[in-house]
């Protein structure tokens, strides 16, 4: 059962591509992975390495 009472994942457009920012600050290109990160954190009180390694690396300079 999925509870979406509190959505902590926000959509952003980064370099013309839609990305999903988790409550923990990590950025994912897959909404479901972002939710999985948030859910894992809420359930376990820590981040999942399996999930965080899927996070998108954000370049400091976004000018292209
Ligand atoms: Zn997260």
Walk me through the topology:
Layout: E1 10-14, E2 17-21, E3 27-28, H1 31-44, H2 49-52
Antiparallel strand pairs: 1-2, 2-3
Bound molecules: zinc ion (ZN).
Characteristic terms for this protein:
64 residues; 3-stranded antiparallel beta sheet; alpha+beta; globular; binds zinc ion; single chain
Written description of the protein model:
With 64 residues, this protein is of the alpha+beta class. Helices cover 28% and strands 19% of the residues. It has a domain at 10-52. It has helices at 31-44, 49-52; strands spanning 10-14, 17-21, 27-28. A 3-stranded antiparallel beta sheet has the order 1-2-3, covered by helices on one side. The relative contact order is 0.18.
In short:
The chain has helices at 31-44, 49-52, and strands at residues 10-14, 17-21, 27-28.
């Amino acid at each position: 059962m999925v509870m979406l009472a509190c959505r902590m994942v926000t959509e952003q457009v980064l370099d013309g591509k839609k990305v999903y920012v988790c409550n923990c600050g990590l950025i994912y290109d897959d909404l479901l992975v972002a939710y999985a990160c948030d859910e894992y954190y809420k359930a376990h009180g820590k981040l999942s390495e399996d999930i965080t390694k899927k996070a998108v690396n954000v370049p400091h300079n976004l000018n292209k």
